[in-house]
Amino acid sequence: MHEEKKKATKQRFMFNIADGGFTELHSLWQNEERAATVTKKTFEIWHRRHDYWLLAGIIQHGYARWQDVQNDVRFAILNEPFKGEMSRGNFLEIKNKFLARRFKLLEQALVIEEQLRRAAYLNMTEDPAHPSMALNTRFSEVECLAESHQHLSKESMSGNKPANAVLHKVLKQLEELLSDMKADVTRLPATIARIPPVAVRLQMSERNILSRLASRGPETPPPQTPCTAQSG
């Protein structure tokens, strides 16, 4: 019994939004979780766990019903990071603005996650012949060429003539690649303008995505209580 309790206590909180790195969400989570772990302020510092309960609160009470979410004891964890601000006159305004801004980021990440899922379902892949891919390839070539020959600079400065000759050839190659990249960049805006919008290519508008995310099917479990979420 003791071992089971110990195991339950150590259980890690799991929640993720697979946005493919297209938003700043995962960078924020990483920094926030590091701060929460180091200071041992798991509930006082906003991080991934709070985002989970914010979404759960919105599912329960609806969009922008910040006060209802905050007053619901099941989502009491959301009030913890703001306890130090309670003496300020515009306390509620600060709190509500933060929640709105944070939800906007979560919503953006959720939309991208759904778009990526849809793209995978439609088996969509990048066209290797597309100009943007050519630019990416050239950038990789520049990076590889510069890194693999960085030692030549030091050798050339120390009077190594063969190294100096090779360095000049490498610099010439880099110059040509950069010139090609400059031409690619010049053509890119017009090329991108001709690409159909993401919603068209995925056959799914952002409104449809949000409707799907907001729909509560019978299989959706009711939100847990904060004390349940806090184990781990």
From TrEMBL:
One of its GO terms (cellular component) is NuRD complex. Keywords: Nucleus. Residues 213-232 are annotated as: Disordered. The keyword Nucleus applies. Coiled coil: none annotated. It comes from the Eukaryota. The keyword Isomerase does not apply. GO terms for molecular function: ATP hydrolysis activity; ATP-dependent chromatin remodeler activity; chromatin binding; DNA binding; histone binding. Residues 43-188 form the CHD C-terminal domain. This is CHD C-terminal 2 domain-containing protein.
